[in-house]
Amino acid sequence: MENLKATLIELEEHLFKAEIRASHGELDELIADEFIEIAGSGVRFGKKEVLERLPSELPPKISAFEYELRCLAPNCAQLLYKAVMVKGGDTTAIYSLRCSIWSLINGRWQMIFHQGTLCKPFES
């Protein structure tokens, strides 16, 4: 279970990187075709919108911590964590509780669901 947790954290944080967010090919590999996201704004969108939006957007700086892994089924796991995001050119931190569901599809882990819920700043 610890190996799976490390693998999924690595994949999750891979999606934080500017060069990955800018790469249509990398995003296509990491995000499943049936992907759904519910953004902090409450907007729901799929893989098509991610592939259109992310490569052209100024990437935020994201730091994440307190990861928790839950196995939902064989080859399906949920990663829960806290994140602090600063959007490009801004200095205001945005705090969120996040959840991603990863599924092993054709031999590789892909994200099938993601939700970020905005919250108050985390206490130290």
The helix count comes to 4
Helix residue percentage = 25-40%
Separation of the first and last Cα atoms:
28 Å
- Uncertain runs with pLDDT below 50, 5 residues or more? none
SSE string, helices as H and strands as E: HHHEEHEEEE
Number of domains: 1
- Largest sheet, if any? 6 strands, mixed
Protein described:
The chain is of the alpha+beta class and 124 residues long. It is built from 4 helices and 6 strands, in the order αααββαββββ. It has helices spanning 2-14, 18-21, 24-30, 47-53; strands spanning 31-38, 44-46, 61-73, 76-86, 93-105, 108-118. A 6-stranded mixed β-sheet has the order 2-1-6-5-4-3. The chain is globular and about 40 Å long.
Main features:
124 residues, alpha+beta, Nuclear Transport Factor 2, Chain: A, 6-stranded mixed β-sheet, 4 helices, 6 strands, 25% helix, globular, NTF2-like_dom_sf, DUF4440 domain-containing protein, DUF4440
Secondary-structure map with pairings?
Elements: H1 2-14, H2 18-21, H3 24-30, E1 31-38, E2 44-46, H4 47-53, E3 61-73, E4 76-86, E5 93-105, E6 108-118
Parallel strand pairs: 1-6
Antiparallel strand pairs: 1-2, 3-4, 4-5, 5-6
Concise overview:
With 124 residues, this protein is an alpha+beta fold.
